[in-house]
What does this fold into?
Amino acid sequence: MKKYIDILRKCALFNQIEEENLIKMLGCLGARVESFDKKYTIFSEGSPAKYFGIMLSGSAQIIRVDYYGNRSIVSSIEPAEVFCEAFACAEVRNTPVTVIANEPCEVMLVDCSHVLHTCQNHCAFHQQLIFNLMKNLAAKNIMFHQKIEITSKRSTREKLMTYLMLQAKRAGSNSFDIPFDRQELADYLEVDRSGLSAEISKLRSEGVINSHRKHFELL
It folds into this structure.
């Protein structure tokens, strides 16, 4: 586990927990690391919602598929980020989403019950862990409302521009990269890909944006 310390120290879940305590904590939590190939399913919809993951390397996407098979990207997962913790903490029976690896990745899996209930060692840093978890869940809730703000817009143009302005604000620059290719961006915005591509072309010709692959610039 020591080789993952640098990335784990960047994880919000372990904020203000000293390195020596972090090593002990991973033992108490029974954390284990698994490797996944590109396009491999890390968590599948309907599987028991017992574990949450921490991305150690690589990346993945959280995907929701409706009754008719329409695919929507809920969010992307980058190194040091926690995912599916809300479902495990809520003790729902089954995971309502699917998590798929974008590329070969390593994931730390943690049984949520080991986080919510202190171990017999009564570790002093466990309360800090629970506080960090609740803070992380609150931040995810804000991100969820931001996506509602985007997808509630009426037109593809409004959805795209709302998303790009939020990304620019997050990056602190009018020039930034997004984590999605065109099809993935269409899935995230819940719009048709051809319509999205047409709107991007219009915005470029109007001098509103510049774009190349995953890079965008607001003019």
Summary: The radius of gyration is 19 Å.
